[in-house]
Amino acid sequence: MTTKPRLSFWQIWNMSFGFLGIQFGFSLQNSNVSRIFQTLGADIDEIAILWIAAPLTGLIVQPIIGYMSDNTWTKRGGRRRPYFTYGAIFTTLGIFIMPNSPTLWIAAGMLWVIDASINVSMEPFRAFVGDMLDDEQSTTAFAMQSFFIGVAGVIASSLPWLMTNWMGISNVAPEGVVPDSVLYAFYFGGAALFLAVMWTVISTKEYSPEQLKEFNKTADEDLGHDFTEDQIVKSGSDYRKGGAVWILLGLITTGIIYSQSFDKQLYILTMGSIAFGFIQIITAFLKDRGRTNNGFYAVVDDMFHMPKTMKQLGFAQFLTWFSLFTMWIYTTPAVADFHYGSTDATSALYNEAADWVGILFASYSGFAALAAFTIPVFVRKTNRKFAHMINMFIGGLGLMSFLVLKDPVWLVLSMACVGFAWASVLSIPYAILIAAVPSSKIGVYMGIFNFFIVIPQILAASILGVLLRTVFDGEPIYAVAFGGLCMFTSGLMMLRVDDVADRKAKA
Q1: pLDDT given for residue 225 in this prediction
Q2: Are 357 and 381 in a shared domain?
Q3: Which one in 197, 304, 421, 459 has a CA-CA gap of 20 to 30 Å to 153?
Q4: Burial class, 159, CB count within 10 angstroms (exposed 0-12 / middle 13-18 / buried 19+)
Q5: Are residues 315 and 291 in the same domain?
Q6: 71-120 pLDDT, tens per residue?
Q7: Cβ of 232: how many Cβ atoms within 10 Å?
Q8: Averaged pLDDT for residues 274-299
Q9: Which residues contact 233 (CB under 8 A, 6 or more apart)?
Q10: Do 172 and 246 have their domain in common?
Q11: Within a domain: residue 218?
Q12: Is 429 inside any structural domain?
């Protein structure tokens, strides 16, 4: 049996270092894009629609790039590294251009470019771990990625403040012009992204397809029964019937929303249902004509035939990311109202609360960077499922504690708990996943797994406003606590996940 060589700490460091750059791009977006949109004239109720670029591009781009990178090999570039390189180049260009956008719609277009390009680099980074490391070391590598994500989140989110307070760069500008502090933050962040990704490209060499085939032979043989036991081949008729059901469901619910004058955000769900139906209709067309040797068909077919472990993880991930999106949306209004006693977004007290939430968000990224070092140790003492479950419990309790802690200063402890959950979310599920899918399909299944991250965010964007008005009586603090309950429940769902590593340990 040929096994993958064990890599040293610094080899794992080098192959993960590019994630520092990728997170610079994401954190710059999260912290500053709404500000840029408003500077260029966006109304407050337009921002959510402009932001939909992020989940939609991930939904579309990641499985496509995953499939492509699974089927790529160049002698000089390797399998995944060409995607690291080109994704980094176009992301950096987008980051440089965005704060210089002359109009709102150019800025919105650049957000699509940045998100698409980041996903081109990020998805193969996840699959890269499965290529380079055995199952035992994969948890360490994903924890290392969590560390870099946490570090980059703290630095990138703070860059405009650092530019203003440490370097004396102006934080204000004439109407319609992005402040220099944001402009230079994007320049610095774009350069950091490119250099960090290129460090991984240059410092890490990939195994050839022949080496990978030999390394993964035993693992794929062990996986064979699990992967095929539920693999009922779907016919064109199956896809056609399923597509018709989803289209009909979308049309009926669209009619109900329209006739009852329900919240227009719910149309996002109905349009998604119709789109999913048409995707299956197209798949049926390709299946009937034997045109199955293409990326579109492969991604859809693999989605319907994902391994059992992946499905189990998906349900837990769904609740986790619904919880996180709830936190990102409602923490600022919740803290401003519940802890500072202000709902007036123009008041000094509200803005003081918003500034404090910025510190809280930076702190959970910082705590996540520290927690990342504890995850491999905790996993060795217990197992991956139990470790992730406990971290989800800690994070869920942290969010629910917003209802109990009246002094906003103590919310740092709440966010320390969230930091443990965040570090775990970014590492353990991916380590379990790569052990449960065929080595030749790691990229495409990593992309499909992203559905369980993106769809709950789209769902949250569609229904949270309705829940806030009808269930939570307009009090955002209860939405944050509900997010904590969802995170706690996602931890419980880990008990039913079948981790391949557990079976190997018992054998």
Answers
A1: 46
A2: yes
A3: 459
A4: buried
A5: no
A6: 888 877 888 999 999 999 999 999 999 889 888 888 888 888 888 899 89
A7: 9
A8: 90
A9: none
A10: no
A11: no
A12: yes
